[in-house]
Amino acid sequence: MGWFRVVDEIVAPIFDGLRFIAPIAWVPFAALWFGTGVGGPIMIIFAGAFPPCLINAYRGAKQVDPQLIEAAEMLGTGHLRMMKDILLPASVPSIVAGLRVAAGLGWQSLVGAELIVASTGVGFMMVQAQANVATSTVMSGMVAIGIVGLIIDILLRRGEAVIRRRRGLTE
Predict the structure, then answer these.
(1) How far apart are CA 115 and CA 125, in angstroms?
(2) By three-state DSSP, how is residue 38 classified?
(3) Span 152-167, pLDDT tens digits
(4) pTM exceeds cut of 0.70
(5) Which CATH number fits the domain that encloses residue 126?
(6) Distance (Å, whole) CA 112 – CA 27
(7) Nearest by Cα to 53 from 9, 106, 17, 6
């Protein structure tokens, strides 16, 4: 999308529209198509996580310095090598930012799906605890969700730091 104009004109409007659909809004659709099995939550997580990944990677590719692209083109760099050596490294900060947003939305989507359609997981446990008026269990579930989300974000930030160091992009 960020490199080929035709693909951009076709696909970008679709994902710009899809990103405004809250992941939890996909629950009824997922329940109809997949029932209460594992397919529904996977679809909901994908619906929540994929658009921010795609959109941030796209924005990162669009914001690559045009002079870098012109210089590579003047040296006869092909499309594949241009993507690998110019586009991807320059887009890494945007891609990682998208992954961080996607991880948060994916994690929230998983818990939301468990609250509504699943028969296992932290969200399901919290619903059961609510029905039994077990406030401490509900609060423990919320804390666990927050801690796991924080760990995911820390791991992604560390991964970004490693990539930046390997590419010589440390600040």
Answers:
(1) 8
(2) coil
(3) 889 988 888 887 787 7
(4) yes
(5) 1.10.3720.10
(6) 9
(7) 106
| Residue 107 burial (CB count, 10 A) | 19
- Asked if the model's pLDDT at residue 2 lies above 80, the reply is no
Using one digit for the tens of pLDDT, what is the confidence trace for 98-111?
A: 888 898 888 888 87
Q: CA 106: distance to chain centroid?
A: 7
How many domains is the chain built from? Answer: 1
Contacts of 92 (CB under 8 A, 6+ apart): 60, 160, 163, 164, 167, 169
pLDDT band at 136 (very low <50, low <70, confident <90, very high): very high
Q: Are 21 and 38 in contact (CB under 8 A)?
A: no
Distance CA 93, CA 100 (A): 11
Q: Which of 51, 46, 50, 47 is nearest to 16 (CA)?
A: 51
Residue labelled with tokens 């997981």: 121
One-letter amino acid for residue 60 of the chain: G
In-domain check, residue 171:
no
Residue 75: domain span: 5-166
Q: Which amino acid is located at 164 in the chain?
A: R
